[in-house]
Amino acid sequence: MPGQSEDGSNGGEFRGHRDTAQVDMPMAPPRRTGPVGAPSGPVAPQRALTGPVPLPADGRSDASPLVRTVERHLDEILAAVPQPDPIELAVLDAQGLLCAEDVVSQRALPAFDQAALDGYAVRAEDVADATVARPVELPVVGESVAGASEPSSIGPGLAMRVAAGAMLPSGADVVVPAVWTDNGAARVAVQAGPPVGSYVRRTGDDVTPGDPAVHVGTPIGPAQISLLAAVGRDRVLVRPRPRVAVLSAGTELVEITSPLAPGQVVDVNSYALAAAARDAGADAYRWGILPGDQRRLAEVLESQLLRSDLVLVSGTFTGPAFDMVQEALAGLGGMRVSQVAMHPGPAQGFGRLGRDEVPVICVPGEPVAALVSFEVFVRPAIRLMLGKRQLFRRTVQAISGQHLLSPLGYRQYLHGTVMRHPDGGYVVEPVGEATDALLARMARANCLIVIDEDVTEVAAGGLVTVMPLLLGG
C-alpha cells in the first residue's frame, strides 16, 4: 500500500497525503478495452487507474465540499497515535515484537572449539592420503561427548571419537565424519581426509564478545530468541503491543447467546474488530456492547481511556443511541464525525480524549464497512504504534474478471477473490455485488479490490489494484 517506508517507525508527524491504494510493484498501463482478446470497441470514458486524484489544497474530496479524503482522515489518525514506551519482557513473551535495544553479546559463540558433527577428531596431515581403497588406520585414545568435561588433547597419529557439539581436543584441527570411517572403537579406519578446519566450530566463529547480537528494530522471532538465549539474555527491551479496547454502540445489539427479538442483531463487530486488532499485532480487549444508561456509558468510556492506548468504537452514526455516545465522547474531549470519500462506510469519527488524549477511532456499525474501515485506518495505526516500518498491506495489480462500477468521487473497496493467472500475473473477481453487505460473502474473500475516486467504471479485462488480506500480513 502507500509509501509509508522509513518514516513509519519514528512516530513523527506525517507530511502530505497518503495514497492508500498505491501499488508497491511496477504497473502495466491501464486497459481501456474489454476482455483480453475481445474485439475492440467503444467503452465508457474513464480516467487512468494510476496516480492520485488532484485534490484541493485542504485535502477535501471532489465529491462534496464537506467530504474528506481517505488520506486526510488517515494522516490525522497516524499523526495522533502515541508511541508506547519500550518495556522489558521475557524473551518468549517478546516473540513477534520489535527489539527496542541493541543487544551486545558478553559471550563468545561458540564458547569453545567444538565438533560440528559426530566423527573422529584428528590432525588433517595424518589423514591427508586416506582413500576408500587405502584407508588410514589410527588408534582411538578416548571420546569427547557434549556436556561439561575436562579439556583433552591428542598427539600426532592419534584420533579421538567426538559427538556433535562436544569439545574439540587440542591438537586436532579437523573432524572426520563417522560415515567416512569404519566406526572403529579401539582403532579407526579413515577412508577420506577432509582439509584443515572441516567440521570444526572455532571459539567466537559465530559471535565474539562485544558483537551486536540483535539490533534495534529487529522483529523477534524464533531465530532471534535462540540467539538471545545463547548470549545469556533471558529478558529484552521491546516495543510493546498497543492496548486496544473494542466497544460496540447500538440499542439493536445483543450478545451472541441472547435470543433475537424482531429488529435486533448480534454484536458482530466487537468480535470481528478485536480479532482484526490482534491479527495486526495489538493486545486487543473486547469490552462488548456499550450500556444504554448515560452515566454508566460515560463511566465505561472513561475507564477504557485509562487502560488503553487506542479505543475503537463501532456503531451507527445516526439516531438516539449514537447521540448518547457522541455526547459522552464530547464530554471527554474533542471528537469529530466526518464524511470520508470512501465506500463502504463513509461516516468515520476520530478524536483524542481523556486526560492522556487517547486516540478514539469510530467506525461504522455495518460489519462489512467496519472491517474495511479497520483495514484502511486502524490497522496502519496499530502497526505504527508497534514501530513497524511497513504500515500497509502490499498491493498487486490484477486483471478484473468482471465489469466494475464505482461512485464518482469515492474510493471503493470491494471484497474479492484473487488468484494467479496461468500466463502470469493475477486475476480478481468481486465477491457479490458492490451494494451487498453479506458476512458469508466477505468470509469467502481473500482481498480488497480498490477503485480510485476518479474511476467510475472498469471494463472486464482492465487492471485494478488489489490488496490481499493475509492473516498477520
From TrEMBL:
EC class of the enzyme, as a word: transferase
Record's compositionally biased regions (Low complexity): 34-45
Regions that span the bilayer: none
Protein name, per record: Molybdopterin molybdenumtransferase
Family under the similarity heading: Belongs to the MoeA family.
Reactions catalysed: adenylyl-molybdopterin + molybdate = Mo-molybdopterin + AMP + H(+)
Keyword Transferase: yes
Organism of origin: Blastococcus carthaginiensis
Record EC number: 2.10.1.1
Residue ranges of every copy of the MoaB/Mog domain listed in the record: 245-384
Transferase as UniProt keyword: yes
InterPro entries: MoaB/Mog-like_dom_sf, MoaB/Mog_dom, MoeA-like, MoeA_C_domain_IV, MoeA_C_domain_IV_sf, MoeA_linker/N, MoeA_linker/N_sf
Protein task: Catalyzes the insertion of molybdate into adenylated molybdopterin with the concomitant release of AMP.
Keywords noted in UniProt: Magnesium, Metal-binding, Molybdenum, Molybdenum cofactor biosynthesis, Transferase
